[in-house]
From TrEMBL:
SMART domains: PINc
Family membership noted in the UniProt record: In the N-terminal section; belongs to the PINc/VapC protein family. Belongs to the PhoH family.
Region annotation Disordered: where it falls in the sequence: 17-90
Superkingdom assignment: Bacteria
Biased composition (Low complexity): 76-90
Protein's recorded name: PhoH family protein
Protein's organism: Pseudoduganella plicata
InterPro entries recorded: P-loop_NTPase, PhoH, PhoH2-like, PIN-like_dom_sf, PIN_dom
GO CC terms of this entry: cytosol
GO molecular function: ATP binding
Keywords associated with the record: ATP-binding, Nucleotide-binding
Pfam families listed in its UniProt record: PhoH, PIN_4
């Protein structure tokens, strides 16, 4: 009879705390398959602790794969090394044979743990996704991945479109070498004429190459020119030019005179000459990469200009506070009121573990389900684990309307607080069609130009990229040529004019003329060299801008100017631009956390039920 009682006590002791020590000293009483059973016991011990009545932060104790590896390694070492004290072995071995009936209890551990892991994900209390690690997207060829594993440097053969897309791409390959075929230089020469962005990039690449080749002997060109010659310390590789005819056999039927095929022949020849070294073609042309892979040549896209590999990780500017926020952060809380711009604002100074995950000018909200008052605030200061949160003004109430417009949802309220804040110089608004980006921007601009006189005028600009075929040249002045592209602003102005019910027909006509006199429509083509002072600048459809173009626009800001960037990264019409490399994504990621900028991603469409349904199902 004593035998059944033996497992009860020792098993409890092992599950509570003694099992790791026992596995380290015990030379594994079971055969090899028991090495896999050891982690199960460890998992059971931790799952028992999880089901005790503890506070939510104990979610951090959820077992990860790392302890399992440690348990396996410990068991393996113990199996190989029978160095255990004679006294410890007899003490540990007797409970071992009856441990077989206890196996069903251990087997239940994963079943009990699985729903636990699904019901309480760690993300529930985690910060905004911007703080998560980027997802690793496999964009490299197998040849490139093999070179990374063995630690060898690669030789990247650049296609012309890479240089014309990013003129600084020569210096983006770190310690690896860069090879330019002669056909790439020929195509650069063919594209250097004109005033387009591609022509400007081609000329910039030519000037860069001229600076690298200057004061260089012919032998040095053959051996490679250091890419760090012009001061780019991150580029530790060398630049090679095609100095002789590369002969390689390509499949019959491929036209030898075509530029793409000649570049492919160069890659094939380099692979034959430099055996054992990774030679990779880099091209933005999808068909070029397909042809290269069909011929068995490694080819990759140029992803160095991507801000994010996964746009789901893009900063949204909003974070939801945990339900127990006040319990953990309200112990030494301070509150006070300040008058700014004619309004009284309430401030809270809180300290706690959630604060380090916040950013300056990030919006926070707490909507408890127990009937308590909701909190909508903005982080104004951060100092370690202490933050100052300002309670927002409620623009959803009609008394706080902006040019007759009120916020219809939480995100629009956040956006209006940013747009009406004179301390915020740069605002980015992201959202799908119908979320109210243009209407909120125009309403706040008119209120601050015509009512508070904070700015002199509104300047509106956008990229002239057509959705369908181009209709050709447009007659008239600059504003008349831009008017077809500004239909969205005309529609919103019509809505804003109709909101004034007190004024009659003549009053609305006079107001419309006054508004038209304060709104200037400008083309992006003539922005270089300008400086805007006390202007309210709206950049619409900013997702079609490259990072270089958006830098050109944002640096036009003079004293007292506010810049708004509006767009939807799901509607990009510019060739070679993606969601990850768009200029709008670029500025959202780079400006986050700056005390004079803010960002809001608008989630709900407020245009109509038809538009909302169409955006979901189409």
């Amino acid at each position: 009879m004593p035998l059944p009682k033996l497992p009860t006590k020792p098993a409890t002791l092992l599950l509570a705390k003694d099992y790791p020590k026992a596995s380290g000293a015990n030379p594994v009483p079971f055969p090899e398959h028991e090495a896999d059973a050891a982690p199960k016991k460890s998992t059971r011990s931790k799952s028992v602790e999880l089901f005790e009545p503890v506070s939510p932060p104990v979610m951090a104790d959820i077992p990860t794969p790392a302890p399992k590896k440690t348990a396996r390694k410990t068991a393996a070492k113990t199996a190989e090394t029978p160095a255990a004290t004679p006294a410890a072995i007899p003490a540990a071995v007797p409970p071992a044979p009856p441990a077989v009936p206890v196996a069903p209890v251990t087997a239940q551990a994963p079943a009990a743990k699985a729903p636990r892991a699904k019901v309480t994900p760690i993300k529930a209390e985690g910060p905004h996704p911007v703080h998560h690690k980027d997802k690793e997207v496999v964009i490299k060829s197998s040849t490139s991945r093999h070179a990374d594993q063995i630690g060898g440097t690669k030789l990247f053969v650049l296609d012309t479109n890479v240089l014309m897309h990013d003129p600084t791409s020569l210096f983006r390959f770190e310690e690896h070498d860069v090879y330019l075929p002669m056909m790439t230089l020929e195509e650069l020469d063919n594209h250097k004429k004109g005033m387009s962005e591609v022509a400007r990039n081609a000329r910039q690449v030519s000037r860069t190459l001229d600076g690298l080749v200057a004061n260089t002997d012919d032998d040095a060109i053959e051996q490679g020119i250091p890419l760090s010659k012009l001061g780019n310390k991150d580029a530790r590789g060398r630049l090679f030019f095609q100095t002789r005819l590369q002969i390689a056999d390509l499949p019959e039927g491929l036209p030898q005179g075509k530029a793409d095929n000649q570049i492919l022949a160069v890659v094939r020849s380099l692979e034959a000459e430099q055996e054992g070294r990774a030679v990779v073609l880099v091209s933005k042309d999808i068909n070029m990469r397909i042809k290269a892979r069909a011929l068995g040549l490694p080819a990759e896209d140029y992803f160095n200009d991507h801000v994010l590999e996964d746009t789901d990780l893009l900063y949204s500017g909003i974070v939801q506070l945990p339900d127990d926020f006040w319990n953990k952060h309200g112990k030494d809380m301070e509150s006070w009121q300040e008058n700014k711009n004619g309004y009284s604002y309430t401030y809270y100074r809180v300290t706690g573990p959630f604060v380090p995950s916040l950013l300056v000018n990030q919006f926070v909200y707490l909507e408890p389900n127990n009937g308590e008052a909701s909190l909508y605030g903005q982080v104004k200061q951060l100092n370690g684990k202490t933050a100052v949160i300002k309670v927002l003004r409620d623009y959803s109430h009609n008394k706080n309307n902006v040019w007759g417009v009120t916020a219809r949802n939480r995100e629009q309220n956040f956006a209006l607080n940013l747009l009406m804040d004179p301390e915020c110089d740069f605002v980015t608004l992201l959202g799908q069609a119908g979320t109210g980006k243009t209407l909120l921007a125009l309403a706040s601009g008119l209120a601050q130009v015509l009512e508070t006189k904070l700015y002199n005028e509104i300047i509106v600009t956008r990229v002239t990229v057509p959705v369908g075929e181009d209709i050709g040249f447009l007659p008239g002045t600059e504003e008349e040529k831009m008017s077809p592209w500004m239909g969205a602003f005309d529609d919103n102005l019509e809505v804003l004019n109709k909101s004034d019910n007190d004024a009659g027909e003549w009053g609305r006509a006079a107001t419309q003329d006054l508004i038209r006199s304060r709104i200037k429509i400008k083309s992006l083509n003539f922005m270089r060299g300008r400086t805007f002072v006390n202007k309210f600048l709206i950049i619409d459809e900013a997702q079609n801008l490259t990072p270089k173009q958006i830098k050109t626009l944002v640096t036009r800001a003079g004293p007292g100017t506010k810049i708004l960037c509006l767009g939807n990264i799901a509607q990009i019409d510019t060739p070679y631009l993606t969601e990850g490399s768009s200029g709008l994504t670029y500025v959202v990621d780079r400006f986050k956390g700056w005390q004079h900028s803010g960002h809001v991603t608008l989630a709900r469409g407020e245009r109509s039920r038809l538009a909302d349904h169409a955006s979901d199902v189409l």
